[in-house]
Every structure is written in structure tokens, then in C-alpha cells.
Amino acid sequence: MRLVKVGLASANTTVGAFSRNVDRALTLARKMAAEDVTVALFQEQLIGGYPAEDLVQWQGFIDHQWPQLERFAQETASLSTVFVVGVAVAHQGLRLNCAAVVAGGKVLGLVPKEKLPTYSVFYEVRTYARGYPGMAEVHRGVPLGDYLFRFDFGTLAPEVCEDIWSADGPQRRRTYSGGELVVNLSASPFRLGFVDTRRELIATRAADHQCTIAYANALGSNDGIIFDGGGFLNQNGRHVVETPRFQEGYTAAVVDLDRTMRLRTENTTWRSDREAWLAGGGKLVPTLDCTASFRSQREKLTYPVPAHRSFFLPGPDQRRSAREALCEDLLDALALGVGDYFEKTRAFKVLGIALSGGRDSLLTLLIAHRYAKRVRPENPGSLLQAFYMPSRYSSDTTREAAETIARELGVPFQVVPIEEAFDRELAVVKQMLGDKAVTPITEQNIQARLRAQRMWNWSNSCGGLFLQTGNMSEKAVGYTTIGGDLMGALAVIANVPKTVVMYLLDYLQEKTGYEGIRKVLSKPAGPELAHNQVGEEELMPFPILDACFYLFAGEKLLPAELVQALSAMFPEVETARLQGYVEKFVRLFLQSIYKWVQSPLSLHIGNLDLDRERAMQIPVVTGSEWTRG
């Protein structure tokens, strides 16, 4: 047996906070070494933080990472563990995103990332250069390139994030060259349901290449991109262990690398594929011999046996229901996003929310409270401040709902009417217009802008983080006010569809039993900026609105195709009515781009987020002829 204990670590890093990032990693490194971990891996760009975007173009941003890498090496010199950490280096005019192998107090080698994504939230080709097959250079006296690393326990094959997502990635040639333990340092953002895709991919790659794969993912939120952490250890297609997500820490497990090599020899398809690859001109990756500079201590390791003591029977089923998994993951991700923005910017002292008594602001408050409960469990409400700003259109029902949930959560609550200010501002607008009448929509927007102005004034005076509370569905069709409810410092649920907002609130009502949630849900959704406003009556049923958004913005269907798809999805609705909904949606969506590009930084939870810089790059000025059949 060649027993190896592998540690998968995720540290909550901040872009540019090099020393703090390394301090966090060192804490985990020492704990793993104390538990006899043989190989420990951290995430991509551990030292610099991710994503650094154009900061990578500053020479100082790159140069200051190397001393921290050396510090990590020096402070782990006495530990009997091989560490693989993410770092950026500047080499001969190139910026390279690397996995650094560290052991015995030395940086033994650097392996650059080869596959650079430029889709979804990624822009790596803009700043980084690629590693490539056969790359063999030296950086600061350290081998830099396409290498394997031989230790007394086996052969490591480091790689970085996207390299595992390509079937034509470096993993194939490295395993054909003798790589046994592939260590992937990743920074894969949270996306709803995506953890299952990661798990399946890693199992597939481990089976295809007959190797053991260790995968560690980044944790924390930077600029609205949320990394959920977590990691996987898979041996030749068989799941070994998974690390908990949304929390800093590590998980370790033992594997027998002799098993990986035995299965490799038994797999005739893998052997014949390797022969064909070599015959077709494939070149073996060189191996750096590290046995002289480092010796592992594995005497205390024991053979990995099932906790339930059976190799044939399944262990206890700890899987969550699909509903619980979706809701808890989404709530955890958004709470992490709020908390990290609040803490890492170091500009705020308290979280502020304008409660309307409606669904969106309620969910935003519950997410912020979820974060506050984690950091101040004894008094989470002390980190929050809620305001209710009624006008003549505000109902007693919404006021009571807002008061009730604030009381249940222990959140300070103030009622600050805007009626007098509304009258004054309305009079000013009438004076400015002369003989022209104030439109009904202007009256609505005045109220929204007064509330936003007061929240900004509060924020400026007390260091409050003003949370914007709008959802994605209404934002997509411009059912929002520039300078009003579209404003804030951080848009918490701006990428959460309205149907998902309601789904989450139903779930939280069942889980918590809060009376405030029940009261909010008892009233039809509407902004209360005019008499008897109901959102679905002014727009369309929210399930249809969200379906339109997904099919048009996500699947890129034309309006005529949308009608066909919606007819199959909602057969109870007349085709003519569906056609009217589609025409309305497309018109409002294209006319509202100028609005949502002005919205604040938002938390990302998927590939369909409304963010022109990162997710949906649509021109603000555009014609609509192309939408016609």
C-alpha cells in the first residue's frame, strides 16, 4: 500500500490582501499537518485573491505575491506536508496564473494554467498568458512549466481550474506520463445546481484518466462573484470525500495510490488509448524528482475503510431534498455575498434596509439577518437597521407586516413618513412643468426617489450599507425607478427571479414560522405607489414573465419561438394572450437596458445574471428589427 492523506482546503481570501490571505492559509496548513496530511491543496489565486481583473496589469500587484509565497514556504518548512497553492507570477512580460508546489521550505515548481476562460464572469485572456505543452522555463530559480512532481509517496500532477473542464486539457498527457494524483486548484463561482455538475465532471475525469483527483475551490465573495468553497477527492471514478461548502476550513481523507496504479494496469481501454496517443506523436511530460528535498511521514495512516464497515452496502443517505438543497444553497450564497461585501470593503458599520412590507425587501432582510446571525449570534439585530417610509398609498397591512418581521428578528425599526416631502416635491414638479400635467408614473417615481434619498443620507451619516432590494424579473422589464428603488450600494437579490423570491419565502415560512412572512405573503405583490397596485396585473403573471426572460435572454429564442414554447408550458392560456405577453416583454426588456446598466453591484448566482459587465453584454442603444419574424 502507498497510503496518502489528502487535504482539501478553502480560505476566504480578499483581492490584494496578500498577507492576510497567506495568514489564513497558514492557519489551515498547520492544522492539516497536525492531522498527518501528506498533500494539501488550496484554491486558485490563493495569495492574490480572485478575480483580480486588471489589477494583474500592475507590476507591483504581481511582484508582491512572490515574497508572500516564500513566506508561506518558510513558515511551513518544518511540516511534513506537500502544499499546492495558487499564485500569479510575471515572467518575461507574461502574467501567468500558476499552481505552486511547496515542500520542505522551498518552492519546488510552478505549473501555469493553460485553459483561460473568457465567458460568463471570466475575462482571463485579457490579462493572463497561457501555459502550454512542453513549456520548460525557470522563474526566480524555480522550474516553471509543464511538469510532474515525484515524491516518495507518488507523482503529483498540478493544474489550475479550467484545465479540468476541457476534455483536451493537460490532464490526459500528464496521466499518460505517470501522474497519479491530479491536484486541481480552482476558483469556480457559485451557480445554482452547479455543484452536481462539478461532482460529475471530477468523477468522469478521474475515470477517463484512471487517476486520483483532488479538487479545492475558492471561498468567499469579491465584487459580487460568490465562491462557495468545497472540494472533492475522487479515486479512479469512485467518490472518496467532499468538503462542506460556504465555510472556511478543510477536509482530509486517505487514499491508496497503489489502487490507482492497479486499476490503471487493469483498464485495457486506458492502456490502448495511451499507446495510440504515443504513436500519434504525444510527448511525455517531464517529471521533477523531489524525493531528495522532501520526505513524507505516513506511518500513522491507516487503510481507508467505510465508516459503516461494509464495502458492499451503501452508507447512510444524507442527501437533502431538491427543495432544501436549492433554497439553502441560494440563501447561504447570498448571505455570504452580503457579509463579505460588508466586511471586506471595510467602509460600513451597519446594514440598512428600506422595508416596504413586500416580498423583495422582506427576503433581503432575511438574507442580511442570516449573515448577521452567523457573526453576531447573541444579537444579530444589532447589525441591522430597518426603515418603513409610508406615503398615502401605503396600506396598514404592509406596515403591520414590516413591523412584525422586524420585531421577530430583533431588528431596530423606524417609521419615517414621506407624505409631506411627497407633496412638496410634487408641487415643485408641477411648477417646473408649467401648463403640462404631472404623469401618474412620475408621481410613483417621486415616492421611490424620496425613499432612496433618505436611505443615502442615513448611509452617509452612519456608515450604513444601503441594501438594494429589487428582484431580477422586475429589473429586466424596467419595473423599477432610476434614482429610487433601483438604487443602493449592493443589490442583494437583483439576480433572483420573482418566482424564486416567492419560492424562498414559502420555504422560510415553513422553516421558521415567522408571522411577518405570513403577513407579507397574504397580500398580492405590488409596489404601493398608487391605489390598489398589483404587480402581475401591471406586467403579467410572474411565472410567464420569468419564462419569457429565461427563453429570450437565456436560450436566445426569437419572439415567435417564445410563443411556441410558452404554449407548451402554459396550455391553459390562450395563444393570443401569450403572444401579447411576449410582445410586451421583449419591448420592455430592450427599452429597459439603459435602466439596469445603472443599477448597483449585484450578487451573482448564475449565468443569466443582469450585469452588462460580467454576464449579459447587450448594447444599451439597439434597434429591435431583428426580433420580428
TrEMBL record:
Ranges where the CN hydrolase domain occurs: 4-257
UniProt keyword annotations, A-Z: ATP-binding, Ligase, NAD, Nucleotide-binding
Pathway note: Cofactor biosynthesis; NAD(+) biosynthesis; NAD(+) from deamido-NAD(+) (L-Gln route): step 1/1
Single GO term (MF): NAD+ synthase activity
UniProt cross-references to Gene3D superfamilies, sorted A to Z: Carbon-nitrogen hydrolase, HUPs
Reported function: Catalyzes the ATP-dependent amidation of deamido-NAD to form NAD. Uses L-glutamine as a nitrogen source.
Recorded family membership: Belongs to the NAD synthetase family. In the C-terminal section; belongs to the NAD synthetase family.
HAMAP family noted in UniProt: NadE_glutamine_dep
Protein's name according to its UniProt entry: Glutamine-dependent NAD(+) synthetase
Gene label: nadE
